[in-house]
Write a structure and sequence with these properties.
single chain, three-stranded antiparallel β-sheet, 11 helices, 8 strands, 51% helix, 15% strand
């Protein structure tokens, strides 16, 4: 997706593709669709050896990235995860790792980052839906719900967003904590696992608080999550359009490949243009986040709104070009469609991001 890759970045991308094609190609991911975890911990550790969970962690804390631009390097992996409809907690683990780097104490960094970087521990980010209630003093009691938490069912601990004295805070909660209940959800995306997390008086000590919290920290984490989700979407859309073009060349109707019909040509040309626009938007968002652009909030939300709409439309048009075969369970098309549609809602739908752009410019609207 990035057009100006360095030699090292290009090699890193090729290595990522070879690893996926060897370890977990699409036909093998189908075997995991009914697995409660959705992925294997051994596979996760192998991915960690390639640096998948180290890119947003500086070298002095045990991480590092290929180019020194961790967000852009992480995009290279995320794009391939979408292209091959991969399972696993790549996105939440990187977001949580970046939060610990930015907000964590020295003790928290030393205790948590090595396990994440090595793929030995799994973390989930419980950020959306509902507000927690807190007690006072040295111990904290957390009550509330967090919804649609990716890979909460296999997480060793969760980074939970809550409120304390009317201010947002984040707290590190062990998955085995008394009073914490994880309820698996049925997901549109067959390769990923989501759950609702209920916290009923979960007690943690004050050292579990991650930094000072606040809107600025949460905004930075949301931006990283959206950028990686956009890269996944673009990878899935790119693979799906290529699949559809190949099908249009091979499928014969009335004695001719259907791709030779003008109506099909126009559809594919329009969607190829839409795909390039999605790529440009995703890269612009990633660069804004990587460089700390003051306008990153606006750029990221504009990209999320545009890609969320256009990628879903692209997937639907690809389905139409495939006709009846595209509706079958055995065909891979629906796996890409599911990933694209779920990503369009996971970290705020297009309408929600448009509201954020309005608020950024001082107009009213729901957050």
């Amino acid at each position: 997706m990035l057009l100006d890759l360095s030699d090292d970045q290009d090699l890193f991308r090729e290595t990522t593709v070879r690893f996926i094609e060897t370890e977990l190609p699409i036909d093998r991911t189908r075997a995991l669709h009914d697995d409660p975890a959705g992925y294997d911990r051994g596979w996760l550790r192998k991915a960690a050896e390639l640096g998948w969970f180290a890119m947003l962690v500086p070298a002095e804390l045990g991480g590092g990235s290929i180019s020194g631009n961790g967000v852009l390097d992480a995009m290279l992996v995320a794009e391939q995860l979408g292209r091959y409809v991969q399972p696993g907690p790549f996105l939440p683990m990187n977001v949580v790792a970046s939060a610990i780097v930015a907000e964590g104490s020295a003790e928290q960094r030393l205790r948590l980052l090595p396990g994440l970087v090595a793929g030995e521990a799994v973390a989930a980010w419980a950020w959306a839906d509902g507000a927690g209630r807190w007690g006072d003093g040295d111990s904290l009691r957390l009550t509330g719900r967090r919804g649609v938490v990716q890979d909460a069912g296999t997480a060793d601990w969760l980074l939970v967003v809550a409120t304390r004295e009317h201010q947002p805070v984040q707290v590190i909660v062990p998955a085995a904590a008394a009073g914490l209940t994880v309820t698996p959800l049925t997901s549109l995306d067959l390769a990923r696992r989501f759950a609702d997390v209920e916290l009923d008086g979960v007690a943690v000590d004050a050292n579990a608080l991650l930094g000072s919290g606040g809107p600025v920290a949460l905004e930075a984490q949301l931006q990283r999550a959206v950028v990686l989700s956009l890269a996944e979407t673009v990878g899935a859309a790119d693979a799906l359009l290529a699949m559809t073009v190949d099908y249009a060349k091979d499928r014969v109707a009335f004695g001719r490949p259907i791709g030779s019909f003008q109506a099909i040509k126009h559809v594919l040309a329009d969607e190829a243009l839409a795909l390039e626009a999605c790529k440009a938007a995703a890269v612009a968002a990633a660069r804004a986040v990587q460089t700390g652009d003051p306008a990153a909030t606006e750029v990221v939300s504009m990209a999320a709104a545009a890609v969320g709409d256009r990628a879903v439309e692209l997937a639907q048009q690809c389905l139409q070009v495939h006709g009846g075969i595209g509706y079958t369970w055995e065909h891979d098309l629906h796996l890409f469609l599911r990933r694209i549609q779920s990503n369009a809602a996971l970290y705020g739908g297009p309408s929600w991001h448009r509201e954020r752009v309005c608020r950024y410019h001082g107009f009213g609207g729901a957050r």
